[in-house]
Every structure is written in C-alpha cells, then in structure tokens.
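Quick start: read one record
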Amino acid sequence: MTVQPTIFLNCAGSRTQREVRDVLARQGRPMRTYGRTLDAAAMKAAGVADTRQGGLLDIDALAAAMDGCGTVIHMAPALQDKEVAMGQFAIDAARRAGVDRFVYVSVINPQIDYLMNHRAKLAVEDYLIGSGLNYTIVRPMHYYQNIDVAAAVASGRMALTYSVDRPLGFVDMADVGEIVAKVAIEPGHDHAAYDLASDDHSGVELAAILTDLTGTPIEAFRLPLDQIVAMLAPMLASEPGGVDWTASAIERLFTYYDRFGLRGNANVLSWLLGRKPNGFADYARRCLS
C-alpha cells in the first residue's frame, strides 16, 4: 500500500486554505496545518489530524513543522507589510525540511507595480522560481466571496469597495480551493503558473443578476474609500506598526480598480477544472440556500 505524502497548509486559518483543506479532507489526504491561532479540535473535526502553532516569520518553527511533509501550500494574510518575508521564510523552511513541492497562492497580474500587494507577491514568485524547489504558482482573481449576498438581499443594496460601473474579474473561492488541491496532489504541474479567473462584471451587472435571482430589487453602491481604509487597515495589519502600510495598500488597490478595473480570462481555469468555472449566480445561489 502506497503511503500518501503529508500536505502542509501554511496560514491554514485563511479562507482560501479552508477551502483547500475541505477538498483534501474529502479525498482522505493526510494534512498538517500551521498558523498562529489555530483550533486543533476544529481542525481535527475538519479532517486534519496534525495541527501546529507558530508564526509565519519563525523560520525554525516553520521548518520543524514542515519536516516529513511532501508538499507545502503557502499563502500569506492579505495586505501585509511583511508578506515578502513570510513567503521567503516559508520557501527557505521548505528547503531546510527537504520538501519536494511548493504550491504558492499568489494573485492575478502580480506584475502591476502600482499595487503594493501585487508587488509583494511578485517578489515571492521571483524567489520561489530561483529556489530550486519544484513549484506551482496559482494566481486567483478577486473573489465572489467578497460580496455579501445575504446583506445585499436584506437591505436591497450591494456594498462594493470600488466603482460600480467598472468591470472587474472574479473567481469563486470554491473553484480556487479545488485547483490548489489538484495541483498539490496531481503530477504534471511543476514549474507552472496558472491564472484563475471566471467572469468579468461591473457592480451594476452583479446587482442585476442578484435582482433576477431573488426578485428583490438590488442596487449597487460604492463605499467611501476613507471608510473602507478605516475599517480594514487595523483589522488586516499584522501589527500596529504595519497599519499605515496596509492603509496605503488598500488605497492603491481600490483606486486602481476605480480607474482601470482588473479583468481576467477563464480559459486556464476551465481547462484545470474540466468544466465551466462557477459564476456569480452559482455563488449567489449557494449563499441563498
């Protein structure tokens, strides 16, 4: 009987890693989860027998936790001032632990230099490509999950963080979780970088889709940028000293979306899934059910 290698999920409390974890658990894959504040009992109930506590900037703890694992799946918390260091430490720890493969969850179009979070992920990609590890990079688009369907239906208003008229590409986090798990266990994805995108929609179009689904009139509106920054920056920053960096990254991100949008192409995701990617209506139906 062949023993399946353990898959290491870094930053395992993140939304994306929870999707990956659930896919791997359904397939009975052995996993080890790692993060600062993980509930071992909850992880065990979700199918993870081995949970380790530790910081993303503690290379010794990372390497010890990765020891004996065959594949690392790494992502960092959103909009962090130390995201490059987190990625580089994870890569160095994987090399120290003798890990075979490294899957990195990056972002679509990391080459957009104006966007601080994209620039950080590009630096991690650069370091990974030169690391000597077998790697796969996945680059998700903006998540449908950032839209609160229940709140929109209840209030008749869909809150967005960018212009309601500017088309933006989206992807379903469930599809991303399926593909990250797929490339972590399936051969043939070494030294590949995959863009993961579904459909492009303006906020007005999203509100119209939800109106058609529910029969309830929904109007899209844009939250004021200063309100978004005040709400998100303290919550997302890894420490008080990083709030200003995170605030600047948020300001740049949504200013860019306002002016240019950010669009994608579904061909690669369709090929990897073997089907059409989920659209906004699919995501909304799940929320409504």
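The mean pLDDT is 96.
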